[in-house]
Amino acid sequence: MRTRYTTSLGFVALVLAACGRSAVTPAAPPTQLIGLIQVDSVQVRVDGSQVSAHVKGVIGDGCTELAGVMIQRGLSGDTSVSIQILSQRPAEAICTQIAKLYDETLRIPGDFAPGHYALRVNSIETTFDVP
Asked: What's 37-85 look like in SS3?
């Protein structure tokens, strides 16, 4: 009887010890693909020394999300402005093929002196004048 009791306690201790450790490692977060959205049109609006860009395009499919917008102006004397609109999606995702549209007006920071400027938004280039 005593042997059976000791064996049962040993088995219970073994089961409890196994419960504390998991043989399964946690899943790594999915790899994200970062890219530029598809830009279809850009309209520049000038109001005095303030400039904004009305941008329309496609973010991507059902799994793709907007990842951010980066606006850069050229250094002193450089009349170029660059806007990058980024998207992200899980690398291995199977997603609906319904396009998510982008339609935003982006204010370009700072005041613009009178002159001729070049604006690039992802793959679309245009020019504008500040009177």
From this structure: CEEEEEEEEEECCEEEEEEEEEEECCCCEEEEEEEEECCCCCCEEEEEE
